[in-house]
Design brief:
By secondary structure, this protein is α/β, with parallel strands linked by helices. The chain is built from 15 helices and 19 strands.
């Protein structure tokens, strides 16, 4: 059987192109698929026909000095192309990243590196858990620009885990992913136990892959467990061990289990001083006055940079003690000290709010949450704080020299349809009167205030912080269990008092949204294929064409 010369030559060309196509699709598909096998078979058939029916041409192609030199060049070019492909694939697999942007825009900030170093020194292992559904692979690739840097810099101290919530719904529910409104970017951080399992109690929500947010949470997690709160005793304060509705066991567990703050009790009457290891002195719902000795211990503690949390019910009407509550009256030594030192006065009234309340006007829901303090940034109408039997708070308008050492920041206010009832003894007997302009306090009324040392003069020995709320019922077991906002407010107070909510200072560097540097897996495969295969093959084809043309001239 004899085939035409043109058909034989075209079979060699077609066979070569088919083999190249088989190689390209194999690299693209990552496996011997049907089209790879078909092209491979076609290529072998085409070259086989050429070898079978034109053996002299094949022999001539592989002989001769110039031909040998050209063949050697061709082999070297093929070997070089294969080397480039292998190096590129290894770099891609090892996730090696080099930041060539001006200002190292896609490198971790020095503050973040310090936070990672603190994690290493602590001996703890932190796991960053990122939930990305399968349809959000592009967003995952974008987040990976930052997350893999934490993983690489942290070594064995920081782990990175990606989870598809559809494939592991139980774990997603455990972390709280199901309750999030934004399910595209959902990153959490948690400590890992010695057994290698996540410590779910320590889980912190980060949100999107933002360097500032990640490093802040890392520092916050490391700051937990370093504080100790002393709860005063001796004045019928609410008990941190009581499981009753009026106890504060659940609030104590938030401090102990979640924030890892140590808890202790102290009786100032029998103590020489507030211990030096006290992060804060907490006064929760006392029903009898503090005497001069106790107030002096509190003052000495504040002068050492101490911090206070005071939750105070209105006088006379507290149902827990049958109306025997007589704390924070005008002649109370502690009341006078709070005014003289901080410029804060607990009024002898009861807030009745007809514009924003739950079930009764005496269970007010704040209508205004101040943005002046980070404690209140989480609250809105969708996540309210519910209080009960609240006394209003007054702050000094023209502070004297002593009071001027502090900044007073309002936390929450009642509505403009509220007022402060001052006839509390009449109220105890069930005789609540309507608003009396000359006697009662018109709303809106301040229900909580934060006091702190200004940042410009704050130092390790002078960093006092104080939180005063005109109610204690909101933090009891009954309220903390039923209202999520109450539990969050208590947690925010503890974080602010211990300063774990402070945000690190960053330069504007890492920001994956500035440039579209992310790509899907398919796009990355195409880029890889074009740069490592197509471009070298184009060069190879051009060189082969030149070589083939010259060979024919020399033949």
């Amino acid at each position: 059987m004899v085939l035409p010369d043109k058909l034989i030559k075209w079979s060699s060309v077609a066979g070569t192109l088919a083999l190249l196509g088989a190689l390209l699709f194999f690299l693209y598909d990552g496996a011997v698929t049907g089209r790879v096998f078909a092209l491979l078979a076609a290529g072998l058939i085409g070259l086989g026909l050429w070898i079978l029916f034109a053996p002299e041409e094949v022999r001539a192609l592989l002989s001769g000095r110039r031909i040998a030199a050209g063949t050697t060049s061709l082999i070297l070019l093929v070997l070089f192309t294969i080397l480039v492909i292998v190096i590129y694939m290894q770099i891609d697999r090892q996730n090696i990243t080099v930041d060539f942007t001006e200002g190292a825009r896609f490198s971790l900030n020095e503050t973040s590196l310090q936070a990672i170093e603190r994690v290493k020194r602590s001996g703890a292992t932190v796991r960053l858990v990122a939930f990305y559904p399968r349809e959000y692979l592009r967003e995952r690739e974008s987040a990976d620009i930052i997350l893999r840097q934490y993983d690489a810099e942290g070594g064995e101290s920081i782990e990175l885990q990606y989870i598809d919530p559809a494939e592991d719904p139980i774990l997603a529910r455990t972390y709280g992913y199901d309750g999030l409104e934004n399910k595209i970017d959902a990153i959490f951080a948690t400590f890992v136990t010695s057994e290698g399992v996540p410590d779910i109690v320590s889980v912190q929500y980060i949100g999107a892959a933002d360097e500032r947010a990640i490093s802040t949470v890392l520092l916050k997690m490391l700051s937990t467990g370093t504080g100790k709160f002393y709860f005063t005793q001796g004045h019928n304060e609410l008990s941190i061990t009581s499981q009753a509705d009026t106890g504060i066991l659940r609030a104590a567990r938030v401090l102990d289990s979640v924030l890892r703050i140590q808890l202790a009790e102290i009786n100032l009457l029998t103590s020489e001083r507030v211990p030096d290891d006290a992060t804060a002195l907490v006064i929760v719902g006392p029903s009898s006055m503090f005497d001069e000795k106790e107030v002096q211990l509190i003052q000495d503690y504040v002068e050492r940079g101490g911090r206070l949390v005071i939750l105070a019910n209105p006088p006379y009407i507290d149902p827990v003690f049958g109306g025997a509550n007589d704390t924070f009256l005008s002649d109370d030594p502690l009341t006078k000290y709070l005014w003289d030192e901080f410029g804060v006065w607990l009024r002898e009234d009861l807030i009745a709010d007809f514009g924003s309340s739950l079930d009764s006007e005496f269970n007010p829901i704040p209508s205004f949450y101040s943005s002046a303090n980070t404690m209140m940034s989480d609250f809105s109408n969708n996540l309210p704080i519910v209080l009960s039997l609240v006394r209003s708070i007054e702050v000094v308008e023209q502070p004297d020299e002593r009071q001027s050492r502090y900044l007073r920041e309002p936390l929450m206010l009642s509505s403009d349809q509220s007022y402060g009832e001052t006839r509390l003894q009449a109220f105890q007997g069930g005789e609540l009167s309507s608003y009396e302009e000359d006697e009662d306090t018109p709303g809106p009324l301040l229900m909580g205030v934060a006091v702190r040392t200004p940042m410009q003069i704050e130092s390790p020995d002078e960093n006092t912080r104080v939180v005063i709320v005109g109610d204690v019922d909101w933090v009891t077991n009954q309220f903390v269990t039923n209202f999520q906002g109450n539990a969050l407010f208590w947690s925010n107070i503890a974080e602010w008092i211990t300063s774990t909510e402070e945000t690190p200072v960053f330069d504007a560097q890492t920001d994956p949204g500035l440039l579209p540097l992310s790509a899907t897996q398919q796009q990355r495969q195409r880029i890889s294929l074009f740069t490592t295969v197509v471009m070298p093959l184009v060069v190879l084809a051009v060189g082969s064409l030149v070589w083939f043309t010259r060979r024919r001239r020399w033949a």
